Amino acid sequence: MSEPLVLGIETSCDETAVGIVRGRKLLANVIASSVAEHARFGGVVPEVASRAHLEAMQPTIERALRQSGVKLKDLDAVAVTAGPGLIGALLVGVSAANGVALALDKPLYGVNHLASHVAVDLLTHENPERPTIALLVSGGHSSILQVADLTGDIKSLGQTVDDAAGEAFDKVARLLDLGFPGGPILDNEAKSGNKLAINFPRGLSQPKDMESQPFDFSFSGLKTAVSRYLAANPNFNRADVAASFQEAVVDVLLMKSIKACVDSGIDSLVIAGGVAANSRLRQVATQRCATAKIELRTPPPSLCTDNGAMVAALGSLAIAAGKPPSTLGISATSNCPPTEPLYR
Ligand code: KG4
Ligand code: ZN
User: Given the CA of residue 113, which atom of ligand 1 is nearest to it?
Assistant: First the structure.
């Protein structure tokens, strides 16, 4: 199967997302989000998300088929996020994928959500097989990976010891009363602020930390520092706080990612996951990678946040690598590391 036609289904959080790819070509990317239903709670409510997936699943698959001009019967394989994520939400996607694969008598690939964030790179860049360092930053996960083969050889160099980067954005956005989900709103607020106004701490970046935990992150101290600053400065400038906080996160993410490239001798960096949509992270990454002569690969912002195309992309890579499909009837797992890209 040289250019397999793959349907990808993603339901790990609040997006019911379906993508279709042919080999490395993106044919459709459709997303139905239940975010508005969660906004008044200030976070995703799992039960609400699961029910929304159930309602949105069939229409979203139909929209993706229409967008791509593909018929269901022409599909070569089905890929689905089997973890990590909200278990009830994952089960809706996995059940739907099991059903489609069974009805069509086609192989099913259960894939890891985190690895598929990195795999989406193959739809927009050449040479996805090239060894790379990956900075994976999402709402529930932050790590630096050394990727030799996205379908089977992924090493974790370090990860957050407390909050994920996206979680830090969301929590600080809440402190600043910016609304939910906080990351993109804070990004926007920061555009009119002074990033040098407040010198917030860069977690685990002291010389002793860089020796003992060079590729680990910590964001909880930064969140506390913002909270203390707000308490001590009742007339604070919101845009300045947003910009200064964002600068601290971006600085430490890139300092450690570039060190990983230099130490491993790998001159390629993929930045993936929802936080990779951050405009300042993309800007500073472009500057620092150019200086360090590292090839930077960041998917377009619409493919950084959760989507179905990334799931189809990892399924397509698994087929190209000759990996066996998952057992039909696979279940879902709420917790699994990015180093295990495919489910059996
Ligand atoms: O990968 P993703 O869509 O879902 C998870 O797998 O978690 O990531 C969502 C996270 C949220 O925390 C969201 O606030 C953050 O990514 N995010 C951003 C931006 N867009 C999304 N954070 C900072 N700046 C952005 N522009
Ligand atoms: Zn994600």
Answer: 6
